[in-house]
Design brief:
The complex is a heterodimer of chains A (145) and B (134). Chain A is an alpha+beta fold. Chain A has helices spanning 21-30, 36-39, 41-45, 59-62, 67-71, and strands at 11-18, 83-92, 101-113, 117-127, 133-144. Chain A has a five-stranded antiparallel β-sheet with strand order 1-3-4-5-2. The termini of chain A are close together. Chain B contains four helices and five strands. The longest helix of chain B has 16 residues, at 58-73. By secondary structure, chain B is an alpha+beta fold. Chain B has a five-stranded antiparallel β-sheet, covered by helices on one side. Chain B has helices at 25-33, 38-41, 43-48, 58-73; strands at 14-20, 79-86, 95-106, 109-117, 123-133. Classes of the chains: A alpha+beta (145), B alpha+beta (134). The A-B interface holds A 23, 26-27, 29-33, 35, 37-38, 47, 49, 53, 55-57, 60-61, 64-65, 84-92, 95, 138 and B 19, 25, 28-29, 31-35, 58-60, 62-64, 66-67, 70-71, 75-77, 79-86, 127.
């Protein structure tokens, strides 16, 4: 069964996520990235950022939260057993720091029905507590039929 | 590692780095990312669905690719855009190598083509590229 293209434009969220310093360190260790910008308070104080910052791809945590309401959307009826993550893009506008409160909104920007598969693109826009955009995340999922 | 100076970057510059996918990587990544999909943490499930065991989270491989770029930049905040297609599953024990090539420089903007392969030279991420501002 195909994903109905009428759902282009459907929105998810807003979801909020408060950035924690220890969570940043945990994530940086998990991707084997001990960059002192993420791990070393003393070093980080000496940078133009004035303290620890999150790795750019920490967006998978705060923007990735949008995947849950999207996957679980009863209207979409996604076949999760046939779904794979096809493509990913992140655009970064501002660095993310501990204490930031990030609000993310998701929109289905494209649904393509092909012969053997559907391609669904979810775009997440995340802003910080000052209303500044920090990241645009584009998740493309492929669902085999 | 200080921030790279744009004056020291030329079109055609190439750099690379490799990461080993150790036995417990998917467990660490599941905890840190919140992605507990059984294909990443349950070897029996991975066998059952024909993956030959657990596979690494695509976004963890994406993280390795990003690290190669941000290490070279010397400033994670200089990375402005990064993308890829997930081409092939990554298994425990694989070694993932990211090779980056500077393809264009426009003012302080640097475009990079990225090639991400496993130990058999098979592309695990394809159509990968990044943009940085130095």
């Amino acid at each position: 069964m195909s994903v109905d293209a009428k759902f282009i434009g459907k929105e998810y969220g807003p979801l909020t996520y408060e950035i924690g310093k220890e969570k940043i360190k945990e994530y940086a260790k998990a991707i084997k990235n001990p960059d002192p910008h993420y791990m070393d308070d003393d070093f980080a104080k000496s940078t133009p950022y004035g303290g620890i910052i999150a790795p750019p791809t920490f967006a998978v945590v705060y923007a990735g939260m949008l995947a849950e309401p999207f996957f679980m959307d009863p209207e979409l009826e996604l076949n999760l057993f046939m779904l794979v993550h096809g493509e990913q893009e992140f655009e970064f506008f501002e660095v993310v720091k501990p204490g930031d409160v990030i609000t993310s909104r998701g929109t289905i920007v494209n649904i393509e029905n092909k012969e053997k598969l559907d391609v669904v693109t979810l775009e997440g826009l995340s802003t910080n507590q000052d209303g500044k955009p920090v990241c645009k995340a584009t998740f493309t999922f492929v669902i085999r039929k | 590692m200080p921030k790279k100076n744009i004056a020291d970057v030329s079109v055609g510059d190439i750099f690379s780095a490799a990461e080993e996918v150790d036995k417990y990587r998917t467990v660490y990544y599941a905890g840190a990312s919140g992605d507990f999909n059984p294909i990443h943490i349950d070897p029996e499930f991975g066998q059952m669905v024909g993956l030959g065991g657990v596979i690494l989270h695509g976004l963890c491989t994406f993280g390795f690719m990003s690290k190669t770029v941000t290490d070279w930049l010397g400033d994670p905040g200089a990375l402005k855009d990064i993308k890829c297609r997930f081409a092939k599953p990554v298994h425990l024990g694989d070694t993932i190598t990211t090779e980056a090539t500077v393809t264009a420089i426009d003012g302080n903007r640097v475009n990079l083509d990225l090639k991400v392969v496993n130990q058999d030279s098979a592309e695990v991420l394809s159509m990968a590229s990044a943009v940085a501002e130095l």
